Amino acid sequence: MRIIVLTGAGVSAESGLGTFRDKAGTGIWAKFDPMKLATPEAFAADPAYVHAFYNARRRNLIEATPNAAHLALARLEEGLSARGAELLLVTQNIDDLHERAGSKRVLHMHGELLKARCARCGAVADWCADLGVETPCPACASEGEMRPHVVWFGEMPLGMDRIEAGLMSADLFVAIGTSGSVYPAAGFVFEARAAGIRTCEINLEPSDNAHLFDERRYGPASEAVPAWVA
Ligand code: BV8
After folding, report:
1. Which long-range contacts link 57-60 to residues 24+ away (Cβ below 8 Å)?
2. Residue positions in the annotated binding site for NAD(+)?
3. Fewer C-beta neighbours within 10 Å, C or N terminus of the chain?
């Protein structure tokens, strides 16, 4: 038995981390222009501004704690592996709350806020401090080349081969806390359906592609996910 779960910002909302788009229009991208913060061009144009945005989110994340949804998914992974079954947890989130809740196999397709990457040598380092335009690379010592290890718009998401393989061979695909508005993640449900895989959406409200899911459960993730895992 293999389950592939895709999580989005909604799974970390009750841990106090912002979501990006919501009906109330209070999401991060309602306050900040993603084209000025989450693209390589934006970083090249004003690295200090982009660093400040991610430094603030990094400081926020360090204060945050996993919620019942993260803990339930860690229990699910443990229960499945005890039965020789498998959970592939793919997250669009750049926080480490799944890991802190105990999940062992987490695939961060949009990168990780607590890692930094050198644009010159490609080295990726754990990073819980602020990044600045002069931050030296711990590997090649070049200055001003460190960037958040995050996938911006127009950049290739990470782990796509593993995700595509998982989508071909899973028994169930579950999307949790995602608006289904960013590709290629938003397209995974189409691929799961095409492969004849059962699909389930767990969200606060119907997502953009809710109609594509065989099963739909709504409510706050901290309630709906433990209820589904139980
Ligand atoms: C790429 C990291 C190609 C940075 C992010 C096809 C069609 C149209 C457009 C495209 C396409 N293909 C590519 C594109 C362009 C683009 C795209 O999809 N644009 C959108 C806006 C139309 N995609 C890309 O650029 C991607 N790259 O395709 O590269 C390529 C090919 C070859 C070579 C090179 C390149 C890269 C996309 C990744 C961008 N990075 N994040 C950062 O975090 O700062 S995206 C951003 O949105 C977020 O980070 C998040 O990861 C992502 C998805 O958002 P969600 O997680 O869904 O969050 P959202 O707020 O939207 O929704 C939250 C949901 O939770 C809501 O439904 C809400 O109701 C619910 N909720 C709220 N509270 C709760 C809750 N649910 C439960 N409980 C609660 N308490």
Report:
1. 57/17, 57/94, 57/113, 58/113, 58/114, 58/127, 58/128, 58/129, 58/130, 59/130, 60/16, 60/17
2. 92-95, 177-179, 221
3. C
